[in-house]
Amino acid sequence: MTRRLAPIAFALCAVPFVVLATLNSGGYRYGASDQAFYQPAVLLQLDPGLFPRDARVLAAQTTLTAADELIALVVRGADITIPRLFAALYAGSLILFAWGVWQIAGDLYRTRGAAVALLAAMTLRHAIARSGTNTLEGYFHPRLVAYAIGAVAIASFLRGRWSAAALLVLIAAFIHPTTALWLAVWLGAAAAVAEPGRRRWIIAAASLGAAAALWALTAGPLAARLSIMDAQWRAMLATKDYLFPLDWPVYAWVFNLGYLPVIIWIYRRRASAGLVSPRERGLVLGSFSLAAIFAAALVLHAVGVTLAFQLQPARVFWVFDFLATIYVVWGVAEGSGASTRRAQVAALAITAFSVARGIHVVVEAERPPVQITVPDDDWGRVMAWVRTTGKDSGFLADPLHAVRYGTSLRVAGERDVFVESVKDAALGMYDRRIAVRTDERIRAIPDYDRLAAPEARRLGGQYDLDFMITEQQLDLPLVFESGRLRVYRLQ
To answer: What's 398's DSSP letter?
Structure first.
């Protein structure tokens, strides 16, 4: 691929990449999934008066990442709303990710058509089996930013830009620490393989990192995370099956370990064709350091070490999925005997499949392809009213309200909620007290749709809750309603 024309070709691909990636993710949604944590965390940075009850729930993760502080800084400095900033960051992350992929293709492929085919393949969002993560998301997530930075760091490594790669990994660490950790291990091992003359410096850097980690785990911010996660704590996290790889079904092992032979086989094909550079060799062999770390994590899981669960080591399989995709597309679009026509046919076929799949996914989702703010439906109108209440208001709602109505009350209403079972359970992995709190509150309302007025009043008094949101007709003071949703005063 001609280096001079590559930026122009990429510019023509960037917008289609964003569109197809978004469609294959079911459309862009504000406030979905993990934003149930990140958006309230940013709001709390902007207004410490919010979430007087739930701030300690959010603190289980805010103490481990700087993403909320960085995003709040941008909101203040750019005078932009959180929904619009999240949409901009989402699009920007996809473009940065596409640029990193395009640069990698420029080093590993010989035709521009194959690079286009790789971009198209990367739009096919899919889950990494039992890892709790996807290759792409239909909403802004700091992990996506870290992935994008990681792709550019890998491209920098392939081009021998060691300082740039190291700086990019350091930046990723401020945004999503665990993703940056896997990138650092991968690229550090890759550099040790590719550049024997630099091994002393790599070993020195790794030793400093290990010393810093030891301090953090013994006397620093991660102290006590080498403790044993007791059986009760694990039971309270049972719904988060991605935390327990020892309990994976057979299919998860087949899918995740299946990446490795695919990578090895295609790597050997490339090597026999004389296409493998020392840095590519380092990248492939270095990735297996993550397989070793995952194996070690399994031992720690068996012992029950808390940190082994909190690091979510199954997410290292994103690395193998990424590498396998790059190699499989090479095999399809080029192979040992590359031709322009073959690459063009592959690019057209994968793009056509991505278009068809993206349209199907969005139609199946039964929602608009782009939703930048909370939708103006019954839930959205109730949430608009919720935002008019005092900042210290507490709400009782269906524990699964975020799934049922599309956004968390903390996101859309910006107020405390009794429990948000999906996200609060995930935050419980970082703090046993939060796991206990979440479990206790979910058990308190086993059948929310049949919760009677006397029990609702009792919960309101016990947990200092002011209002209840439900679809039931109850003998309580009605203060607001929209469609099937009603808001009652509890006290």
So the answer is: -
